[in-house]
Design a protein that fits this description.
The protein is α/β, with parallel strands linked by helices and 310 residues long. The chain is 40% helix and 20% strand.
Amino acid sequence: MSRVPCDRVTMGANEPKLEISNYVKLNIGGSLFYTTVTTLSKLNSKLRDMVLSEAAQNAKTLESEGWVFIDRCGKHFGTILNFLRDGSVPLPETCVEISEILAETKYYGITELHDACEQALQKKRNRNTNITWVTLITSQNEAQKLISVSSKPVVKFAINRHNNKYSYTGASDDNLLKNIELFDKLAEKHRERGLFIKDVIGSNEICCWTFYGPGGAVKKVAEVCCTSIVYATDKKHTKVDFPETRILEETMNVMLLDTRINKSVQEHELIEATSSSNGNCCCSCSSQWSDAQWDKINASSLYDALYVHF
Protein backbone atom coordinates (compact mmCIF):
# COMPACT_ATOMS: atom_id res chain seq x y z
CA MET A 1 0.00 0.00 0.00
CA SER A 2 1.16 3.50 -0.83
CA ARG A 3 1.73 5.77 2.10
CA VAL A 4 0.43 9.33 2.35
CA PRO A 5 3.41 11.72 2.28
CA CYS A 6 3.96 13.46 5.58
CA ASP A 7 6.15 16.06 7.25
CA ARG A 8 7.82 15.11 10.50
CA VAL A 9 7.83 17.66 13.34
CA THR A 10 9.92 17.16 16.48
CA MET A 11 7.88 18.26 19.48
CA GLY A 12 10.70 18.09 22.07
CA ALA A 13 13.74 16.20 23.20
CA ASN A 14 11.80 13.67 25.31
CA GLU A 15 8.68 13.47 23.14
CA PRO A 16 8.09 11.10 20.24
CA LYS A 17 8.12 12.38 16.69
CA LEU A 18 4.60 13.11 15.42
CA GLU A 19 3.57 12.77 11.82
CA ILE A 20 1.50 15.59 10.34
CA SER A 21 -0.35 14.69 7.16
CA ASN A 22 0.52 16.79 4.10
CA TYR A 23 -3.20 17.42 3.70
CA VAL A 24 -4.67 20.13 5.92
CA LYS A 25 -8.30 20.89 6.74
CA LEU A 26 -8.89 24.53 7.62
CA ASN A 27 -11.90 26.07 9.32
CA ILE A 28 -11.67 29.83 8.76
CA GLY A 29 -14.50 31.42 10.73
CA GLY A 30 -16.87 28.64 9.70
CA SER A 31 -15.75 28.39 6.04
CA LEU A 32 -14.03 25.11 5.29
CA PHE A 33 -10.95 24.79 3.08
CA TYR A 34 -8.72 21.90 2.04
CA THR A 35 -5.07 22.50 1.17
CA THR A 36 -1.62 21.03 1.75
CA VAL A 37 1.34 21.82 3.95
CA THR A 38 3.36 22.21 0.76
CA THR A 39 1.12 25.05 -0.41
CA LEU A 40 1.17 26.77 2.97
CA SER A 41 4.96 26.47 3.15
CA LYS A 42 5.67 28.16 -0.17
CA LEU A 43 6.09 31.49 1.61
CA ASN A 44 7.46 32.26 5.04
CA SER A 45 4.32 33.54 6.73
CA LYS A 46 2.46 33.65 10.00
CA LEU A 47 -0.25 31.51 8.40
CA ARG A 48 2.15 28.62 7.88
CA ASP A 49 3.36 28.77 11.47
CA MET A 50 -0.19 28.92 12.82
CA VAL A 51 -1.37 25.92 10.82
CA LEU A 52 1.66 23.73 11.54
CA SER A 53 1.47 24.53 15.23
CA GLU A 54 -2.26 23.76 15.42
CA ALA A 55 -1.85 20.61 13.32
CA ALA A 56 0.85 19.39 15.68
CA GLN A 57 -1.49 19.92 18.62
CA ASN A 58 -4.26 18.00 16.84
CA ALA A 59 -1.89 15.13 16.17
CA LYS A 60 -1.56 14.60 19.93
CA THR A 61 -5.30 14.07 20.43
CA LEU A 62 -6.99 10.97 19.12
CA GLU A 63 -10.43 12.58 19.40
CA SER A 64 -9.49 15.46 17.13
CA GLU A 65 -11.13 15.49 13.69
CA GLY A 66 -8.10 17.23 12.23
CA TRP A 67 -9.67 20.65 11.61
CA VAL A 68 -7.42 23.65 12.16
CA PHE A 69 -9.62 26.52 13.33
CA ILE A 70 -8.64 30.17 12.75
CA ASP A 71 -10.94 32.85 14.07
CA ARG A 72 -10.98 35.07 10.96
CA CYS A 73 -13.46 35.81 8.20
CA GLY A 74 -13.21 33.25 5.41
CA LYS A 75 -14.59 35.52 2.67
CA HIS A 76 -11.24 36.08 0.96
CA PHE A 77 -9.28 33.11 2.24
CA GLY A 78 -9.74 31.33 -1.08
CA THR A 79 -7.98 34.24 -2.78
CA ILE A 80 -5.09 33.89 -0.34
CA LEU A 81 -4.81 30.15 -0.98
CA ASN A 82 -4.83 30.69 -4.75
CA PHE A 83 -2.03 33.22 -4.38
CA LEU A 84 0.01 30.68 -2.42
CA ARG A 85 -0.68 28.02 -5.06
CA ASP A 86 0.01 30.06 -8.19
CA GLY A 87 2.12 33.00 -7.07
CA SER A 88 -0.41 35.50 -8.44
CA VAL A 89 -4.13 36.12 -8.26
CA PRO A 90 -6.58 38.59 -9.85
CA LEU A 91 -7.74 41.19 -7.34
CA PRO A 92 -11.31 42.49 -7.08
CA GLU A 93 -12.37 45.70 -8.80
CA THR A 94 -13.63 47.59 -5.75
CA CYS A 95 -11.37 49.32 -3.23
CA VAL A 96 -13.47 47.94 -0.37
CA GLU A 97 -12.77 44.31 -1.27
CA ILE A 98 -9.08 44.97 -1.92
CA SER A 99 -8.87 46.64 1.50
CA GLU A 100 -10.47 43.57 3.07
CA ILE A 101 -7.87 41.30 1.46
CA LEU A 102 -5.16 43.73 2.59
CA ALA A 103 -6.29 43.35 6.22
CA GLU A 104 -6.26 39.54 5.94
CA THR A 105 -2.80 39.44 4.38
CA LYS A 106 -1.52 41.68 7.16
CA TYR A 107 -2.89 39.28 9.78
CA TYR A 108 -1.50 36.18 8.05
CA GLY A 109 1.85 37.85 7.32
CA ILE A 110 1.78 37.25 3.55
CA THR A 111 3.98 40.18 2.52
CA GLU A 112 3.91 39.62 -1.24
CA LEU A 113 0.10 39.72 -1.52
CA HIS A 114 -0.03 42.58 0.97
CA ASP A 115 2.27 44.68 -1.25
CA ALA A 116 0.23 43.80 -4.36
CA CYS A 117 -2.96 45.00 -2.65
CA GLU A 118 -1.34 48.26 -1.60
CA GLN A 119 -0.15 48.90 -5.17
CA ALA A 120 -3.61 48.18 -6.57
CA LEU A 121 -5.22 50.58 -4.09
CA GLN A 122 -2.68 53.29 -4.92
CA LYS A 123 -3.41 52.95 -8.64
CA LYS A 124 -7.12 53.34 -8.00
CA ARG A 125 -6.51 56.41 -5.84
CA ASN A 126 -4.39 57.99 -8.58
CA ARG A 127 -7.06 57.18 -11.15
CA ASN A 128 -9.73 58.83 -9.04
CA THR A 129 -7.69 62.02 -8.67
CA ASN A 130 -7.41 62.43 -12.45
CA ILE A 131 -11.02 63.52 -12.78
CA THR A 132 -11.92 65.75 -15.69
CA TRP A 133 -14.38 68.44 -14.67
CA VAL A 134 -16.68 69.64 -17.45
CA THR A 135 -18.76 72.70 -16.64
CA LEU A 136 -22.43 72.09 -17.44
CA ILE A 137 -24.49 75.23 -18.07
CA THR A 138 -28.18 75.79 -18.70
CA SER A 139 -28.33 79.45 -19.75
CA GLN A 140 -26.40 81.96 -21.84
CA ASN A 141 -25.85 84.18 -18.78
CA GLU A 142 -23.97 81.39 -17.06
CA ALA A 143 -21.80 80.89 -20.13
CA GLN A 144 -20.94 84.58 -20.48
CA LYS A 145 -19.95 84.87 -16.82
CA LEU A 146 -17.67 81.83 -17.00
CA ILE A 147 -16.05 82.96 -20.25
CA SER A 148 -15.40 86.48 -18.96
CA VAL A 149 -13.60 85.37 -15.79
CA SER A 150 -11.71 82.38 -17.19
CA SER A 151 -7.92 82.72 -17.33
CA LYS A 152 -7.81 79.86 -19.82
CA PRO A 153 -9.03 79.56 -23.40
CA VAL A 154 -12.62 78.33 -23.56
CA VAL A 155 -14.20 75.63 -25.69
CA LYS A 156 -18.00 75.65 -25.49
CA PHE A 157 -19.92 72.73 -26.91
CA ALA A 158 -23.67 73.20 -27.40
CA ILE A 159 -25.56 69.93 -27.80
CA ASN A 160 -29.34 69.51 -27.74
CA ARG A 161 -30.87 66.88 -29.99
CA HIS A 162 -34.41 67.99 -29.14
CA ASN A 163 -34.03 71.40 -30.79
CA ASN A 164 -34.71 69.84 -34.17
CA LYS A 165 -37.84 70.84 -36.10
CA TYR A 166 -37.39 68.20 -38.77
CA SER A 167 -36.39 64.57 -38.92
CA TYR A 168 -32.70 63.69 -38.89
CA THR A 169 -30.79 62.16 -41.77
CA GLY A 170 -29.52 58.61 -41.45
CA ALA A 171 -25.99 59.35 -40.19
CA SER A 172 -26.92 62.26 -37.94
CA ASP A 173 -27.30 60.29 -34.72
CA ASP A 174 -23.90 58.64 -35.18
CA ASN A 175 -22.30 62.02 -35.88
CA LEU A 176 -23.88 63.48 -32.75
CA LEU A 177 -22.28 60.74 -30.69
CA LYS A 178 -18.93 61.29 -32.40
CA ASN A 179 -19.05 65.00 -31.55
CA ILE A 180 -19.82 64.20 -27.91
CA GLU A 181 -17.00 61.66 -27.71
CA LEU A 182 -14.52 64.10 -29.25
CA PHE A 183 -15.49 66.80 -26.75
CA ASP A 184 -14.97 64.40 -23.85
CA LYS A 185 -11.54 63.37 -25.18
CA LEU A 186 -10.40 66.95 -25.68
CA ALA A 187 -11.67 67.93 -22.23
CA GLU A 188 -9.67 65.11 -20.67
CA LYS A 189 -6.48 65.80 -22.63
CA HIS A 190 -6.46 69.57 -22.14
CA ARG A 191 -8.08 70.03 -18.74
CA GLU A 192 -4.99 71.93 -17.54
CA ARG A 193 -4.90 74.30 -20.52
CA GLY A 194 -8.51 75.13 -21.26
CA LEU A 195 -11.98 75.52 -19.81
CA PHE A 196 -14.47 73.16 -21.42
CA ILE A 197 -18.15 74.05 -21.18
CA LYS A 198 -21.05 71.86 -22.24
CA ASP A 199 -24.31 73.66 -23.00
CA VAL A 200 -27.26 71.27 -22.95
CA ILE A 201 -30.22 73.63 -22.51
CA GLY A 202 -29.25 77.28 -22.85
CA SER A 203 -28.58 77.28 -26.60
CA ASN A 204 -30.87 76.91 -29.58
CA GLU A 205 -28.18 75.01 -31.45
CA ILE A 206 -28.34 71.28 -32.05
CA CYS A 207 -24.60 70.72 -32.28
CA CYS A 208 -22.18 73.64 -32.29
CA TRP A 209 -18.60 74.31 -31.15
CA THR A 210 -17.56 77.82 -30.08
CA PHE A 211 -14.02 78.90 -29.18
CA TYR A 212 -13.07 81.90 -26.98
CA GLY A 213 -9.80 83.46 -25.89
CA PRO A 214 -8.77 83.60 -22.21
CA GLY A 215 -10.10 86.13 -19.74
CA GLY A 216 -12.71 87.56 -22.03
CA ALA A 217 -10.01 89.83 -23.52
CA VAL A 218 -10.34 88.06 -26.85
CA LYS A 219 -13.79 87.77 -28.33
CA LYS A 220 -15.14 84.68 -30.01
CA VAL A 221 -12.29 83.23 -32.04
CA ALA A 222 -14.18 80.73 -34.15
CA GLU A 223 -17.34 78.71 -34.39
CA VAL A 224 -17.98 75.34 -35.96
CA CYS A 225 -21.66 74.59 -36.55
CA CYS A 226 -22.24 70.93 -37.27
CA THR A 227 -25.87 71.12 -38.43
CA SER A 228 -27.51 72.07 -41.70
CA ILE A 229 -30.87 71.74 -43.45
CA VAL A 230 -31.08 69.47 -46.49
CA TYR A 231 -34.01 69.32 -48.87
CA ALA A 232 -35.48 66.00 -49.89
CA THR A 233 -38.21 65.38 -52.43
CA ASP A 234 -41.10 65.76 -50.03
CA LYS A 235 -39.74 67.47 -46.90
CA LYS A 236 -36.77 69.00 -45.13
CA HIS A 237 -34.27 67.08 -43.00
CA THR A 238 -31.70 68.13 -40.43
CA LYS A 239 -28.20 66.89 -41.10
CA VAL A 240 -25.52 66.65 -38.40
CA ASP A 241 -21.92 66.49 -39.60
CA PHE A 242 -18.71 65.55 -37.81
CA PRO A 243 -16.00 67.96 -39.10
CA GLU A 244 -13.32 66.42 -36.91
CA THR A 245 -10.37 68.04 -38.65
CA ARG A 246 -11.90 71.50 -38.40
CA ILE A 247 -12.70 71.04 -34.70
CA LEU A 248 -9.17 69.87 -33.93
CA GLU A 249 -7.70 72.80 -35.86
CA GLU A 250 -9.78 75.39 -34.03
CA THR A 251 -8.98 73.76 -30.69
CA MET A 252 -5.28 74.05 -31.48
CA ASN A 253 -5.67 77.70 -32.47
CA VAL A 254 -7.50 78.71 -29.31
CA MET A 255 -5.09 76.80 -27.04
CA LEU A 256 -2.22 78.80 -28.54
CA LEU A 257 -3.85 81.93 -27.11
CA ASP A 258 -3.01 80.74 -23.61
CA THR A 259 -0.79 83.49 -22.17
CA ARG A 260 -0.22 81.98 -18.74
CA ILE A 261 3.32 81.35 -17.51
CA ASN A 262 2.97 77.57 -17.45
CA LYS A 263 1.77 77.16 -21.01
CA SER A 264 3.43 74.54 -23.19
CA VAL A 265 6.95 75.19 -24.47
CA GLN A 266 6.28 73.02 -27.50
CA GLU A 267 4.11 75.50 -29.38
CA HIS A 268 6.65 75.87 -32.18
CA GLU A 269 6.68 72.11 -32.74
CA LEU A 270 2.89 72.13 -32.55
CA ILE A 271 2.60 74.71 -35.31
CA GLU A 272 5.08 72.84 -37.50
CA ALA A 273 3.24 69.56 -36.95
CA THR A 274 -0.03 71.07 -38.09
CA SER A 275 1.32 72.97 -41.09
CA SER A 276 0.17 71.50 -44.39
CA SER A 277 2.71 70.56 -47.01
CA ASN A 278 1.43 73.04 -49.58
CA GLY A 279 2.13 76.02 -47.27
CA ASN A 280 -1.47 76.93 -46.50
CA CYS A 281 -1.92 79.22 -43.52
CA CYS A 282 -3.00 77.49 -40.29
CA CYS A 283 -3.66 80.57 -38.19
CA SER A 284 -7.02 81.70 -36.84
CA CYS A 285 -8.00 83.22 -40.17
CA SER A 286 -8.43 79.65 -41.38
CA SER A 287 -11.88 79.71 -39.82
CA GLN A 288 -12.99 81.37 -43.05
CA TRP A 289 -11.73 78.63 -45.34
CA SER A 290 -14.11 76.76 -47.59
CA ASP A 291 -15.04 73.13 -46.99
CA ALA A 292 -12.92 72.09 -49.96
CA GLN A 293 -9.83 73.68 -48.40
CA TRP A 294 -10.48 72.01 -45.08
CA ASP A 295 -10.60 68.62 -46.76
CA LYS A 296 -6.96 69.09 -47.79
CA ILE A 297 -5.74 69.29 -44.19
CA ASN A 298 -3.89 66.24 -42.97
CA ALA A 299 -6.00 64.92 -40.08
CA SER A 300 -3.24 62.65 -38.82
CA SER A 301 -0.91 65.61 -38.21
CA LEU A 302 -3.63 67.29 -36.17
CA TYR A 303 -4.02 64.16 -34.07
CA ASP A 304 -0.28 64.17 -33.42
CA ALA A 305 -0.42 67.82 -32.39
CA LEU A 306 -3.45 67.66 -30.13
CA TYR A 307 -2.91 64.23 -28.58
CA VAL A 308 0.90 64.25 -28.25
CA HIS A 309 2.28 67.78 -27.98
CA PHE A 310 -0.49 69.18 -25.77
